[in-house]
Design brief:
This protein has 170 residues and is an alpha+beta fold. It has 4 helices and 10 strands. The strands form 3 sheets. It has a 6-stranded antiparallel β-sheet with strand order 4-3-2-1-7-8, covered by helices on one side.
Length: 170
């Protein structure tokens, strides 16, 4: 697409969960939703990439100013896995199901790819017996990363209303 400097792909997903978002089309298959975002002439466009075709939509978001301002941090930061402190050592806590988020920003010369489990940005879990709590020692650090902040913006942009019709109605 001529004039587009970068494209951002965002996929929120879930393993072992019921679908947490409605697909914006009628479909027999259940694909994980993937959204493509790009900026052209000062407007941000969104396209749903799933198992059906939809028109491109215009959305209101600060997505591209955030990406341009923090692209170096987005490239170098990583969400750390859920860890608990056991006496003087750290121990990773695993989970076999749950939500995850994946993003990829593609420029002509390089690509930033990040993914993480929603479990990694959870503050704590309760034990199966209900008597104890396991705290994620990286919770605050992970929530402050630009990767997590961008995924929050991408989630909001994926659910934002389409401005294309509103512009036609003016």
């Amino acid at each position: 697409m001529q004039g587009v400097q970068a494209i951002c792909f965002y996929t929120p997903g879930c393993i072992g969960c019921r679908s947490r978002s409605q697909t914006p089309c009628e479909s027999d298959r259940r694909a994980e939703p993937t959204f493509a975002f790009w900026q052209l002439q000062g407007r941000t466009y969104r396209l749903y990439l799933g198992d059906c075709r939809l028109k491109k939509e215009v959305v209101s978001t600060d997505l591209w100013s955030y990406i341009n301002r923090h692209h170096q941090a987005l490239e170098s930061e990583h969400i750390r896995p859920f860890h608990q402190r056991v006496f003087l050592s750290l121990q990773r806590v695993y989970r076999n199901h749950g939500g995850w988020q994946e993003l990829e920003i593609v420029w002509p010369n390089f690509t930033i790819s990040q993914s993480f489990s929603d479990f990694d940005v959870t503050p704590f879990i309760r034990s199966f017996s209900g008597k104890g709590i396991t705290r994620n020692i990286y919770f605050r650090r992970n929530q402050r990363t630009h990767v997590y902040q961008l995924c929050q913006r991408l989630q909001a942009a994926s659910e934002a209303p389409d401005l294309t019709q509103a512009e036609k109605d003016r």
